[in-house]
Design goal:
Two copies of one chain form a homodimer. In chain A, helix 3 (57-67) crosses helix 8 and helix 8 crosses helix 9 (200-227). The first copy, chain A, has a two-stranded antiparallel sheet. Chain A folds into two domains: 20-137, Farnesyl Diphosphate Synthase (Orthogonal Bundle); 138-331, Orthogonal Bundle (Farnesyl Diphosphate Synthase), CATH 1.10.600.10. The longest helix of chain A is centred in the middle third of the chain and has 28 residues, at 200-227. Chain A contains 16 helices and two strands. Chain A has helices at residues 21-34, 40-50, 57-67, 74-97, 109-113, 115-133, 140-161, 170-194, 200-227, 230-233, 239-242, 248-256, 259-270, 276-284, 288-306, 314-328; strands at residues 102-103, 106-107. In chain A, strand 1 and strand 2 form a beta hairpin. Chains A and B meet through helix 2, helix 4, helix 6 and helix 7 of A and helix 2, helix 4, helix 6 and helix 7 of B.
């Protein structure tokens, strides 16, 4: 049953983790020791799923905020690992939703073991994250992580409900990506700051950073479906269009064209033989890609601005650099 | 989108809940208010999923143990609702695993809305249960529920890994049904007793009751796949056999026949055109169904014995009657 795993290349973002390198190693060790089972089959699945997420962005955010206040505690390492488990659980379940075969050069759990096994692997990761969080002395983190994960699910459910719904407003789109992506980033930054003894204003600033960074990240991710380099992103262009998922560039495009053209576009989008190439061509004639890039820049700037509330530290410098990194993916 | 739901008949087991009728109503109200969303699509899914589980056995067990010590607190109502949400989440995901179309006379989430939506609905229920649990003053319940849910997932993953594994031992089978079914019953009885101020010995006795009742219940459930009345169980006979799931009667049968016969049986079980009717016929010539019934009785008795540790109360009488009820399903 055991197959060698392809060791994925280090993500360049991880170079930024230098000030928390030792702590990130502790998080990795904890993930390795927590995600084991005495039953070989279960153990294999847990080890595989632990490799699916690459950048470890959420634990890094938590620890960067925490360390900007002082030394990292064992509880913060646990929380960083728990948040990464939640994120991995959502990836494992997302891969089923997207019938994805590969993630980061390894085959997905659903592709290799079937959907049933992938559902249970995700469930195991969720429940183990909650268990780990509840080993902290107070219920604060468990509440935050429970509530945030719940919002992630609600956001994803809403997104499924918006399939084919091409009159989705920009406001609704932003609410959905806030829930499905930004909430967990915000949970990480908030917990890192809270458990480091940050003031209420500092915790709010950290949460605002996480939210805005998450929104910028998701706008860029959605843009890459239209303007990405397939060899870099490892995804086929136009997948969201094929799945009839209304994302920001498309919402803007439909808002900005004349009614006659809009009807034509909607007919194409709703036709059974929808061709992503045709739709990608529409964007080349519109300003919608640029508009979406500007929106991503707007949220990335808001993330950096939120850091104004924090005292100077090497970690703060890094946190200020991360949004730029997120934006660079879209160029 | 909205469809009228068929109101399922009250399960006869619920007649036993008389001493906690008012509290069970509070649990129902809490489930209704917690499982809502301001987004219509999400709200519809939550309302539907809340109707999938019928007997409310786990909340009833929690409250019966709690009330045998005194008045029920708001925290116990929350825990009863949280445990039911976890149970419902596992049902929603199980229905995907089994490609089930109906549960309790309503169509399943996967059948009506597709697997994607069902995965997310289950995830929502899990995370909401964890959130609700973490609103209690201490982390005790969150730890218990996190750990128990994790064991349920591990048990289900192991069961998938044992597909086709017809040399599964009785010991392994019992371990798996303990994890996938009995652990959550035991969690309910343990929490009910702990939060009622039970002594360590009383909490252990309550846990033992939950474990043994859960094991008896699952053995009976597995038996009904072979000897059940399709019109009563609402399931086709031989489904486990068709899915090549080794359960107690089959394990016993293969252990008790001569080697030559065993080879014949194994060939049939492994053949592409496995016919459940043929296999059901083997059981009529064996003692394996009786053996399994005896095992269920053994565990049901152990559950009743565990109650010896508790002081007399009307709730204890009811708790002593529930295992008999579980056994009656197999006659």
């Amino acid at each position: 049953m055991l197959k060698p795993l392809v060791e994925p290349k280090q993500h360049p973002l991880t170079d930024l983790y230098a000030p928390i390198a030792a702590e990130m190693t502790q998080v990795e060790s904890l993930l390795k020791t927590e995600l084991t089972s005495k039953y070989e089959f279960v153990d294999e699945l847990l080890r595989k799923s632990n490799r699916l997420s690459g950048k470890r962005l959420r634990p890094a955010l938590l620890l960067l905020f925490a360390k900007s206040f002082g030394d990292i505690t064992e509880d913060q390492i646990k929380l960083a690992a728990a948040i990464e488990m939640i994120h991995t659980a959502t990836l494992v379940h997302d891969d089923i939703l997207d019938s994805a075969e590969q993630r980061r050069h390894n085959s997905t759990i659903n592709y290799e073991y079937g959907n049933q096994t992938a559902i249970l692997t995700g469930d195991f990761l969720f429940s183990h994250a909650f268990f780990l969080t509840s080993t902290l002395p107070t219920t604060f983190a468990a509440q935050e992580i429970g509530r945030s994960t719940n919002k992630v699910c609600e956001g994803e459910m809403r997104q499924i409900g918006t399939k084919d719904q091409f009159d989705l407003s920009q406001k609704e789109y932003l609410e959905i990506i806030d829930a499905k992506t930004a909430v967990l980033c915000s949970c990480a930054t908030k917990l890192g700051t809270h458990y480091a003894g940050g003031t209420d204003a500092e915790v709010d600033a950290a949460a605002a950073y996480g939210t805005n960074l998450g929104i910028a990240f998701q706008i860029v991710d959605d843009l890459l479906d239209i303007v990405g380099d397939e060899s870099k992103t490892g995804k086929s262009l136009g997948t969201d269009l094929e799945q009839r998922k209304p994302t920001l560039p498309l919402i803007h495009l439909l808002d900005s064209v004349a009614d006659s053209e809009k009807s034509l576009y909607l007919n194409s989008l709703r036709s059974d033989d929808l061709n992503p190439a045709t739709i990608l061509d529409w964007f080349s004639k519109s300003d919608s890609v640029n508009f979406s890039k500007t929106m991503a820049i707007h949220y990335a700037k808001k993330a950096v601005d939120a850091l104004g509330q924090l005292q100077a530290s090497p970690e703060k410098e890094i946190l200020a650099a991360i949004p730029h990194f997120v934006l660079e993916r879209s160029h």
